Structure formats: C-alpha cells, structure tokens
Amino acid sequence: xxxxxxxxxxxxxxxxxxxxxxxxxxxxxxxxxxxxxxxxxxxxxxxxxxxxxxxxxxxxxxxxxxxxxxxxxxxxxxxxxxxxxxxxxxxxxxxxxxxxxxxxxxxxxxxxxxxxxxxxxxxxxxxxxxxxxxxxxxxxxxxxxxxxxxxxxxxxxxxxxxxxxxxxxxxxxxxxxxxxxxxxxxxxxxxxxxxxxxxxxxxxxxxxxxxxx
Length: 213
Known about the structure:
Layout: H1 6-32, H2 40-70, H3 81-97, H4 101-113, H5 123-126, H6 135-144, H7 156-171, H8 180-206
C-alpha cells in the first residue's frame, strides 16, 4: 500500500469503509423489505457478514495506519514507544525461543540499537488476532496503535455477547434464532463502531499522535 500522505490514508479508509457499509446496508434492505418475510437463515447469514466486516475493517484500517507511519521515514526514537514495541516484537520472540548465547547477544544488540533504526511496522507479525476479534483483542489492537478505547468500552458487551458469540454459534452449526429487529440494531452498532475507528485513526494521523512526546 502506497499510503504516503494523510490524503492517501483517508482515501484508503474511505474506500474500505464505504464498500463494507454499502454491503451491510444492501443486505439490510432485503431483510427489512415489506415484500418478503426474511427467513431465519437469511438473518443468521447477516450476522456472519457483520462479523466479517467488523474484523476485516479493524485489521485493514490498523494495517493501513501502520503503513502510513512506515512511509514517514522515521526512526523508532521519533515515535511513541508503543511502535518500538511493535517493531521489535519478533526479535523479542527470538530471544525467548533461542537457546544459543550468540544468537541471543545478536538479538539484544538489535533491540538496544533499534531506536536509531528506520521503522518497520508489520501489523500481521506484531499483533495477535487470536482467531477472533473479541473486545479484548480489539483493546490490544487499539492500545498498540495509540487509539483511546474509552468511546468503545460501553460496546464491549455487544461485541462479545451479541456479535462474536452469535457468530460462533452460527458458524458451528448451532440453532440460533435472531429476530429482525435485533439484527438491524446490531448492524447499526457495527457500522457505528467501524466509523468511529476510522475517525480515530484519521485524527491520530492528522495530529501526528504517533510521534514521541
């Protein structure tokens, strides 16, 4: 991704958010249509769709933000310390796993000298999604990239109990019936969470929140 400017990042986020929200809205029109009575299976499929967009957008937006920071050409000492933690995470894993003193010394040297190295932030290698985007995984992602979670905390119960739990039940073939009203409400909440995360990343980028203070 060539996200070198704030406009590049905003366009990337706009595009990713737009197609996801349009797909959810189009699905909702079918669910709400007075011309048909949607089968329970249709609504169940909608919950799986909502979760897919929730996870996909949070991952893509975070990945895009880290790419944007990478393209600033900064060294780690220029950035908030959390980004140094992302940058050296794999090396810390090497230190933990290796039984060879020479390899450990090389790893320690790399970590000590990392502040003067150009940033190399890799979302997929540094942040463990743990297979599912639960509220605890989301909190870790948000903290890792410097996003305040206070606006999201009141929605953690919704994420875990209504979105994630119901998606799991459906994906594992359990009989889980969801009424139309509950599904429409859930879809609005998911779109709202995605929009808030988009706004928070745009604000963090525009105010250079990623820089060391």
